[in-house]
Amino acid sequence: MINQEIVELLGQRVQLIDLSRSLEPTVSEPTPPRIQHISHKDCAEMWEFMFGIPSNALPNGLGFAGEIVEASTHASTHLDAPWHYAPTSEGQPAWTIDETPLHWFVGQAVVLDVSDLPTGYLVTPEEIEKCLKKLSHTIKPGEIVLFCTGADAVWGTEEFFSYGCGLGEEAVLYLVDQGVRVIGTDAWSLDRPYPIIGNEWAIFQDSKRLWSAHFAGIKRKYSQIEKLTNLSQLPPVGSTILCFPIKVKGGSGAWSRVIGLVPTGEKVD
Q1: How many CA atoms lie within 13 A of 252 on its CB side?
Q2: Among the residues of 58-152, which ranges form H helices?
Q3: Is 169 helix (H, G, I), strand (E, B) or coil?
Q4: What is d(CA 263, CA 52) in angstroms, rounded to the nearest whole number?
Q5: What is the pLDDT along the chain (269 residues), one digit of tens a residue?
Q6: Quick one: fold of 6-29+73-264?
Q7: Which stretches within 109-262 are classed as H helix?
């Protein structure tokens, strides 16, 4: 469900758009998260075992609910750190997710609709320029560029892993060299789908075809958001994105509750 909450922020009213997927078991993930739910009753029994506190001493005889989660930091909506791509970036040790500057993760959003491009298509700088020309927009440093591939529609199915177009090195460097530090997609990967890359290796054995968007991080520091949702609820330009990652020590990536702030045009009195 799309979050339609309106809040007051920095002197204006904004609509909150939830751009994040739930962390959940799903066939869309080759290695789905596992979540063990601890019930209120389980907790009461644990406290009795640990501390000798009888359940009848607790409100309604119940303790606290909880969860134990086993999941990749790249499951659900998440951010990749430069360390994910390679040990070094721009000739220096690559940043892990807890080392990546916080200011990267807030910025004006530019949403580019590439859903008309077929699955497996390699998005080029020329395609990006065409999209920007349609919007009469010029990229500014610090903007967060998000690609709407249409993969959002097949989340929850096995097809999601293999769906959508993707970027390569040229497109990533085109954006990063203009000051973009975070690039997002609603697909499983910012690169073209993994099965397509794997199948092409069997045919061409061309290393330049292998995850070239990710490996562009060796040349330039950048981060990517994968598995976004609800991008169609954002205007192409004019919204703000908050995408702060969980501070995983030494992490190659981390989950994020990505939120779009869309101005309503109403001023706060």
Answers
A1: 12
A2: 82-85, 125-135
A3: helix
A4: 54
A5: 444 687 777 678 999 999 999 999 999 999 999 999 999 999 999 999 999 999 999 999 999 999 999 999 999 999 999 999 999 999 999 999 999 999 999 999 999 999 999 999 999 999 999 999 999 999 999 999 999 999 999 999 999 999 999 999 999 999 999 999 999 999 999 999 999 999 999 999 999 999 999 999 999 999 999 999 999 999 999 999 999 999 999 999 999 999 999 998 877 66
A6: Glucose Oxidase; domain 1 (3.50.30)
A7: 125-135, 169-176, 194-204, 212-215
Identity of the amino acid at 159: E
Q: Which two tokens stand for residue 187?
A: 């697909």
List beta partners, residue 3.
none
- Cα of first residue to Cα of last residue in the chain, in angstroms, is 30
Range(s) of the chain covered by CATH 3.50.30.50: 6-29+73-264
Strands (E), the chain: 6-9, 12-18, 34-38, 66-70, 78-80, 88-89, 92-93, 106-113, 122-123, 144-148, 166-167, 182-185, 223-226, 237-242, 253-255, 259-267
Residue 170's region, left for phi above 0, alpha for psi from -120 to 50, else beta, is alpha
